[in-house]
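pipeline: protein-struct stage 2 | run 1193 | Deacylase
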Amino acid sequence: MNLGILQLFKFLLIFICLQNLNAEVKSFDFDFIKKGQQDENTLLIIGGIQGDEPGAFMAASLIATHYDIKKGSVWVIPNLNFYSIIKRSRGPYGDMNRKFAALSKDDPDYNAIERIKKYIKSDEVKLILNLHDGSGFYREKYINNKMSPRRWGQCAIVDQSTLDIEKYGNLEEISSKVVKGINTNLIRERDMYHVKNTKTRLGDKEMEKTLTYYAINNGKAAFANEASKELNLQERVYYHLLAIEEYMNIMGIEFERKFSISTPEIKKVINNDIFISFYDEKIKLPLSKVRKLLKYFPINKDGDLSFTASNPLMTIVKEGKEYIIHYGNRKLAKLHPDYIKFIEDERDINISIDGVNQSIKFGYIIYAKDSFNIEAIPDLRVNVIGYVNKKYRNEVGININKNEVAKRFSIDQDGNLFRIEFYNGDKFAGMILLGFEK
């Protein structure tokens, strides 16, 4: 092959690969969530700049989903580098927190970096908090390999002591107040927080590339909070939330938390009451104890899987023939698709639950103690997944008892929650979930 043609071929191949990478990353754009009443005293909270730091992005997501802002304004970006979260990687295309000084337009992270820079520079934003999980335990003097000045865990970070701006320029003083507040609520003495001043302007070339230093150079008070990777997830989130609340108190932002701030409660909040709804809530899927594989799951014939999630850290990625439900770093379940044409049907479904008649919409979850009976519906065929009776192709008008539904067909690991699917001929109309215990 001619050398010139070979070089052109290589160039085109690289160009196509870069385009594919950019398209893939763009499909994981980060969420931007505004909370409270818009004012000129906004706190910007950022999690997930590095995808291997779950304490950081989980804490930010809880601010988005489980906090009400009663006074003031909070902006939350819980999944800045969502692609790296899904990949369980510090950064599939390099460390995003080292891309704020200079960056090629060909870099897959370029669009995300440009977008976050606009939020950082917004006039409303007065304080920026970037959340991280760091190694070991930061100490001003060397104690051992895990406790030393080289470690990053359990510290509040500033790039310099002060910044000449109208509000919150006393950076080290503010971070000291935050540290004092956290240290009155330690789980154990080892977890003590300290202030770490990186003194970036004095020649720290790596820190000059970071998000907080970019913010500092644009006249914004910026801090990082680090929880130690030596801690479990709920403990990391606990310390991040303590820090966030201290910053909100300093800014006069009033909030209401929907759970008590303890590690058992945080663990419950992270793992419970999480769900994804599909196709305008035609199907609702609880995820707290979902089975690892759900077979023959109805998906529109065109392959488009539209969904809404209860948490911004959730998404669905197609891998081979299956659809994978991700929650942060975790893969919760695989959906093995049953491709079928979906139709619109807004009718309520009449179901007798333990002898009491109820009118139920598609997408609802209902509970029975002992039995249920679905009233016949014109044009619709009913299939109770897990109930087998060869007499009936359309499972209506039958009193179905709890012990007649096979647990292995449940959608949950406890063998409790079952799919009731509705069809119009060979088209899918909707789904209701029925459980025998809440």
